[in-house]
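Co-fold these.
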Amino acid sequence: MNNLVILPVLIPFFTGALLILFSKKQRIQKIISSISSFVILAVAIYLAVYVYQNGITVLEVGDWPAPFGIVLVADMFANIMVILSAIVGVVCLFFTFQTISPKREKYYFYPFYFFLLTGVNGAFLTGDLFNLFVFFEVMLIASYVLIVHGGTKYQLRESFKYVIINVFSSMLFLVAVAYIYSITGTLNMAHLSERVAELEQAGALNVVAVLFFIVFAIKGALFPLYFWLPRSYYGPPAAIAALFGGLLTKVGVYAIIRTFTLIFYHDAGFTHKGIITAIAGFTMLLGVLGAVSQFNFKRILSYHIISQVGYMVMGLGVYTTLAVAGAIYYIVHHIIVKSALFLFAGATEKITGTNDLKQMGGLLKTHPYLAWMFFITALSLAGIPPLSGFFSKFPIILSSFQEEQYVIGGVALLVGLLTLLSMMKIFSYVFWGKQKHTEEQAKYPAGKLLLPIVPLVALTIILGLAAEPIFSYSLMAAEQIMDPTHYIDSVLKE
Amino acid sequence: MEILISIIIGVLFTVGTYMLLMRSLLRVVIGTMFLSHGAHLLLLTMAGLQRGGPPLLGFDAEAYADPLPQAMVLTAIVISFGVTSLILVLAYRTYKVHKTDDLNQLRGSKDE
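Predicted complex below.
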């Protein structure tokens, strides 16, 4: 039964391999990939139910016992992430069907799409630091291909920088792995957690902790290492930008939360309340200031990713169960809403042919459904009740005040206000005002474009209205990761 | 021996960083190669450079070597090999399309 844990990694992998064989036959590709993406979603949900009923589920690959063999661990937090990646996977795939040009389709777009999901799911489920590196690489190599896919001038120029910064951070990851292996002699995360607890995390171990933080901060786009994000996410087509914006940076955040609750949690005054909180504050503030200064739909959204990664990391920095639960809920909310917003950017680009806010206007009249759905999502991002954004920001900010960290709480509130400002800027430029697109464009039927986004918009409303059960679920997940003994006991079976 | 290798790693990292900061696309790629070599050597050295037999059942030896860092470094080498070939192609395509390999001229549009 434990073999269930590896399925979210294996299914996309074999789908990707299969799709290579049919690379020139678009119909078959579409059929296989849509079936497979729904299967992944079903498996992810089934796994979540299984873990909810039976506790943390561990797969020891090849039946080698835990500290020696490779383990895959599905706890509640990892499970939430797998479900989310499956949801975004389905939605972006169907949006891709509507928007992608046939030329791109023929050049191995779908195989790499599924390899990306392989890496993402693997990174969520692995229980071994070196395998985390390997799955990161699987994910990144697929993302290198997808981000440059199509090979426009802009994409080539910015992708090169994206690749170099990620290669550099992978190299740092390897260095950090080398150091921690030389100190503790193990790479199994549960085993590491025990050994680090024995060594009391001082001196060299703190250096390694910060090194890991830097590595994941580059991948997760935290201050001051976020400069690569807005430019490189601007290039690829909207479906890919949505997938990247929703998922990729969150893998970095996931890794930060995992390592800093499971392994490096002993010196919380220095790492969590000191470094992580300060960096979270700067990330939020500078990210949102970047968004306010921009006049380009996709760029504004990219800068918002940065500011919101700050919120999640702030939840970890405050480091109470409530705050971490808030961070988990925030990740859920963010992945859904951010993917939806990028898809809206793609839909408006498809209709008007531009991303520049100043060249758009009056879409409210010609495409009212698009406009109002965007409005709901934008309000949700800014944190207006009763949408999901409010219930994700509330526990984080509340617990920061409870912990008497007033500065970071204040920054978070201010950033919420600025987020609202920049989202309303988009709304007023794109949807209000005089119609700037041609009559022909006004008649463009948006229904097909909107269909894949509807589930995401519905989810953000549901997450808001039914916040109670989902929040108690993330509270349980937070309790599970705040007490590493659960994780250690189920992996090492002591 | 560890100290000697550590010095070599230091040199590799220095050269790699220097190359990474240069303006030519190809040199940047070579820089990442130096850096990943340094990281691989570091992984091997940090685990301790041991002499000993392979840790197999029924194999008698006075000491056994730790197989894990070797397995890891092998994986890492394969990964960096793949990534390097990808970057080389990417650099070549960028050069073909933009007709320059000077990163200063690849900065982006003027208003940024």
